[in-house]
Amino acid sequence: LTPPGAPAPLFKTLNQVEPRTPISSLPYSITESGSFYLTTNLTGAAASSGITISASDVTLDFRGFTLFGVASSSDGIFISGSRSNLWIANGTIRDWGLEGVDATSAQNSRFSDLTVVGSGDVGLRAGTAAKIIRCTVAASVQEGILAYDRNELQQVTANDNGASGISLGSNCRVTDCQAQFNNAFGIATGSGCSITGCIADHNTTTGISTGRGCSIIHCMAGNNTNGIASDSGSTISGCAASGNSNDGIILAPNSAVTATAAYGNGYIGISMQGSNSIAQACVACSNATGGILV
């Protein structure tokens, strides 16, 4: 024989070709680390979560498929216990009775390219130090996205939710996100956060609301009750607030607003509510009660 020796198999095993575990029915429990994927659209059952993850270091790839909830179902995806380093991506989670994704107990995890629609509670709930990227959350009964401290959101859309679109803790970064037609705040954060390049429109309370020491840059807030409101020690720069039924910009003490326009709001354009603040190179016109209130 050439080469010499006994014949040996040359083909790869199935595990070598696709070294992941398929998920083809619900409910399903992941109890060990590894990579998992959906093989088709899957439908849940009443009184049960769709996929329960009880391990760290798990990758779950929807491969473009959908997890469908049914009446009286629980969470679409439920993270059980304190877990870390999860990655959930590439699909749709629709009409679950409680939360689309409940990852409250997860840390250092990533959620990307997900669409979460029609959740009976919060759409996507994350723990700490998560990355939420290119996700859309709509028509949840409560918040669209509810997350704690040190999270990062990029290119997230939260529309038509029954409470705030995006609600975060402290030391978070929010970039290029949209929050529209939510029944509370568009984007609400704790202290020490950065909000850049975001749009908050047609929300029933404040479009963008932050805690102390935050930075709000190049954002637009229109047609809300108030446009943008920050707590003390914050900066607002290069923003626009128009068509809000109350104030366009609300600036707390020890803060600064620069290069910002407040136009056509129902009360004050820029309301500086306290001492030791600066408004510089701003435009405030066609507001019903006043341009700048100091």
What do these coordinates show?
It is a single chain. The mean pLDDT is 96. The termini are far apart. By secondary structure, this protein is mainly beta. It has a 23-stranded parallel sheet that branches. Strands 2, 5, 8, 9, 11, 13, 16, 19, 22, 25, 28, 31, 34 and 37 form a 14-stranded parallel sheet that branches. 1% of the residues lie in helices and 45% in strands.
Main β sheet profile = 23 strands, parallel
**Strands, count:** 37
Structural class: mainly beta
Averaging pLDDT over every residue, what do you get? 96
Instruction: State the shape.
Output: elongated
User: Helical content, roughly?
Assistant: under 10%
Strand content: 35-45%
Features:
294 residues; mainly beta; 23-stranded parallel β-sheet; 14-stranded parallel β-sheet; 1% helix; 45% strand
Secondary-structure blueprint:
Blueprint (H helix, E strand, L loop, with lengths): L13 H4 L3 E3 L4 E3 L3 E5 L3 E2 L7 E3 L4 E4 L4 E3 L8 E3 L3 E2 L1 E9 L6 E7 L2 E8 L6 E5 L2 E3 L2 E3 L6 E3 L4 E3 L2 E3 L6 E2 L5 E3 L2 E3 L6 E2 L5 E3 L2 E3 L4 E4 L5 E3 L2 E3 L3 E4 L5 E3 L2 E3 L6 E3 L4 E3 L2 E3 L4 E5 L5 E3 L2 E3 L4 E4 L1
Parallel strand pairs: 1-3, 2-5, 3-6, 4-7, 5-8, 6-10, 7-10, 8-11, 9-11, 10-12, 11-13, 12-14, 12-15, 13-16, 14-17, 15-18, 16-19, 17-20, 18-21, 19-22, 20-23, 21-24, 22-25, 23-26, 24-27, 25-28, 26-29, 27-30, 28-31, 29-32, 30-33, 31-34, 32-35, 33-36, 34-37
